[in-house]
Design goal:
It is a single chain. The chain is an alpha/beta fold. It is built from six helices and nine strands, in the order ββββαβαβαβαβαβα. It has helices spanning about 60-70, 75-85, 95-100, 115-120, 140-150, 165-170; strands at about 1-10, 20-30, 30-40, 50-55, 75, 90, 110, 130-135, 155-160. The strands form two sheets. The chain has a five-stranded parallel sheet. β2 and β3 (about 30-40) form a beta hairpin. α1 crosses α5. The longest helix is centred in the C-terminal third of the chain and has 13 residues, at about 140-150. The N and C termini lie far apart (about 60 Å).
């Protein structure tokens, strides 16, 4: 975060108990949020004006994933099978077509976009201490999902580092969804 400030103050000292008037603005300029805080005192004897600019760059998806990974527990691939065995539920947060093409055996499909709604509507998974392991293709969506579940109050949420791609590359078994037969 880059902060720039400019202040105009009188040469006399400022009383700590001065009363200030604050005006806060937020603007979006060239994909950068600019917060402007203007403060001025009501004092006629010691007028003070302060103008502070704070630039906050827009985050992209990669930034959000990196932030999420700082707050979630990622299970290394070599410990993933043990984590899955100890979990109450293994959730694949990829899209339906990705899940149908192949998934980790025993995984329940709950796409990232509806995960919070499905968990909220599933009484068997409502306990805060439910042990949850998540995965997606490469671990980005799973990290975001893990953050969301932690925000909901779940205490034991993990994601698999490297996701399904790492799982497949390591030669681990893959289950396929059964297609209905119309014969």
């Amino acid at each position: 975060m880059v902060a720039k400030s400019m202040a105009v103050v009188p040469s006399t000292s400022i009383s700590i108990d001065s009363i200030f008037n604050f005006i806060d603005y937020s603007l979006l300029i060239n994909n950068i949020y600019v917060n402007i805080l203007y403060a001025s005192s009501f004092s006629q004897t010691n007028p003070v004006q302060l103008l502070i600019f704070e630039e906050t760059p827009m985050k992209n998806a990669h930034d959000l994933v990196q932030d999420a990974k700082l707050h979630v527990q990622e299970v290394p691939l070599d410990l993933a099978e043990k984590a899955i065995q100890q979990a109450d539920v293994l959730i694949d947060v990829r899209e339906a077509d990705e899940y149908m093409a192949g998934h980790i055996s025993g995984a329940v499909h709950m796409a990232r976009g509806v995960l919070e709604f499905k968990l909220s509507g599933t009484p068997a998974l409502a306990a805060r201490d439910t042990r949850i392991v998540l995965y997606c293709k490469t671990s980005g969506r799973a990290a975001l999902a893990a953050c969301a579940l932690q925000s909901m109050g779940y205490l034991n949420v993990q994601s698999i580092a490297g996701g399904f791609d790492a799982w497949v590359t390591a030669g681990k078994s893959v289950a396929r969804a059964e297609q209905p037969s119309f014969e």
